[in-house]
Amino acid sequence: MSHDDFDENGELTEQVDDAPETDGPQEAEGSPEGDTRQADGFWDDSSPEEEVARMSGIVEAAFEAYRDPPPPENEQDKTSIIESLLFVSPEPLSLGMLSETTGFDQGAIREILNRLVETYRNRDGGLIVREVAAGFGFYAKPEAAPYISRLIRTQVNPRLTRAALETLAIVAYLQPVSRGVVAEIRGVQSEGVMKTLEDRVLVHEVGRGGPPGYPMLYGTTSRFMERFGLKSIDDLPDLEEFAPDDATIDKIKRSLSWELMEEEAVADRGSRTREDTEDNSSGGDCLAEGGGGSDPAGEGDPERGDG
């Protein structure tokens, strides 16, 4: 206290401090009771813009951790990473895609894939690793196909019609092929079916058969090979596998050739019989009108009457 703290009567004057002292940290204005973020240094003295920038930096650092993951420690870690990528990918993964994703050398990836193929083949389980459409992926064993087909039939899954399968088979075996050739082989127009196959990304345009004005040619896509489990078009089954046996061919020949020839022969004999009948009827009428043309000495002969 000083002399200025007392009035003229010697009494202590009332003091009002501009900033009263406190024993603890001050609460931020407008903050809820007990909020100690300012004391913890959360708010500090930074502006909202600075806080947003700092939080953005934290998020960016988190993404950087995903963009630059720590390198695998050994070959087993590499194998686990490749196996995981094959499992989660809905499409086959090529060596280039796996290398770009992992940063591993393509030669090392190829060795890992070969080991995975061998491992899943030897474990005799329901899954195998296969090379399909220039990529690798997980697939079910062929022995499970009937059960998988039964499961798919119970699900909502638009299937290809018979017309679409016929058209797709023609394109697959004769590609590149035009719509006109497809229609000629099937015997019906195939515009709508080809459009459906294009929408399903099973066929696509591959060029024209000549200068401008020539028809567009079509071929199959990598999705077609993926859906049908083919490594390349060369893996299509040989058409001779679907050829009928000799007995069936003989039966077809009889039904389409010999029976037709017999029917034509029967029809020809019937036509000739009708013509002969008509000729005989016409000949009898002429003789009757002529008055005994077959007997010159008959009553109708004027010369006989004159004699």
Summarize the structure.
The chain is mainly alpha-helical and 307 residues long.
Secondary-structure map:
Elements: H1 48-67, H2 75-88, H3 95-102, H4 106-122, E1 127-132, E2 135-140, H5 145-153, H6 162-174, E3 177-178, H7 179-186, H8 191-199, E4 203-208, E5 216-220, H9 222-227, H10 246-290, H11 302-306
Antiparallel strand pairs: 1-2, 3-5, 4-5
Helix pairs in contact: 2-4, 6-8
> Averaging pLDDT over every residue, what do you get?
74
Number of helix segments? Answer: 11
Shape, principal axes of CA atoms: elongated
Kindly report the CATH topology of the domain at 160-242: Arc Repressor Mutant, subunit A
Q: Please, what is the CATH homologous superfamily of the domain at 160-242?
A: Winged helix-like DNA-binding domain superfamily/Winged helix DNA-binding domain
Question: Mind explaining what this structure looks like?
Answer:
With 307 residues, this protein is mainly alpha-helical. 50% of the residues lie in helices and 8% in strands. The longest helix is centred in the last third of the chain and has 45 residues, at 246-290.
Which characteristics define this entry?
307 residues; mainly alpha; Arc Repressor Mutant, subunit A; 3-stranded antiparallel β-sheet; two-stranded antiparallel ribbon; elongated; disordered C terminus
